């Protein structure tokens, strides 16, 4: 993780870095009934849960639409997410905000069953299960892409 000064002074940045290190070392929490509780300063909390994802995207990628054609705009920025479902939500939200027409690609809806165990395989892998698989290294069942090269994108 990189921390940049931005509007903060050096001492604020040091304090924040030390707080992050304490969290990673397990030293920044109180323990109640064996469950650690970490107190997060109010100045770094996203307050409105209804717009939390939009606020996070705007914070990490400020004025994204105006900066799409800048070569390294996305290079040093990332939103970390704890689960693949969260990653999917972030990706879908960001894709929806981009101009241009969507193209939707769907995955295969059937299993290539072997003759010996065909009944079991067909029952074990229903359409809902196949389409709901979300794991690292596989694209989602419904892959939504936007058409165009970054150089061609204009704010519509």
Outline the secondary-structure elements.
Layout: H1 10-24, E1 29-32, E2 35-38, H2 52-60, H3 84-96, E3 102-106, H4 118-124, H5 127-132, E4 142-146
Antiparallel strand pairs: 1-2, 3-4
Could you walk me through the main structural features you see in this protein, from its secondary elements to its overall organization?
This protein is an alpha+beta fold and 156 residues long. The chain folds into 2 domains: 45 residues, no CATH class; 105 residues, no CATH class. It has 5 helices and 4 strands, in the order αββααβααβ. The chain has a two-stranded antiparallel sheet. β1 and β2 form a beta hairpin.
Which strand order do you get reading across the main beta sheet? 1-2
Give the tally of structural domains.
2
Helix run count: 5
Major sheet attributes: 2 strands, antiparallel
Q: Report the strand count.
A: 4
Q: How is the quaternary structure best described? A: single chain
Distance between the termini: 34 Å
Q: Uncertain segments of ≥5 residues (pLDDT<50)?
A: none
- Beta-strand percentage range: 5-15%
Task: State the helicity in percent bands.
Answer: 25-40%
Mean pLDDT: 78
Give the topology string: H per helix, E per strand.
HEEHHEHHE
Question: Based on CA inertia axes, which overall geometry fits?
Answer: flat
Rg measurement, Å: 22 Å
What structural class is derived from the secondary structure elements? Answer: alpha+beta
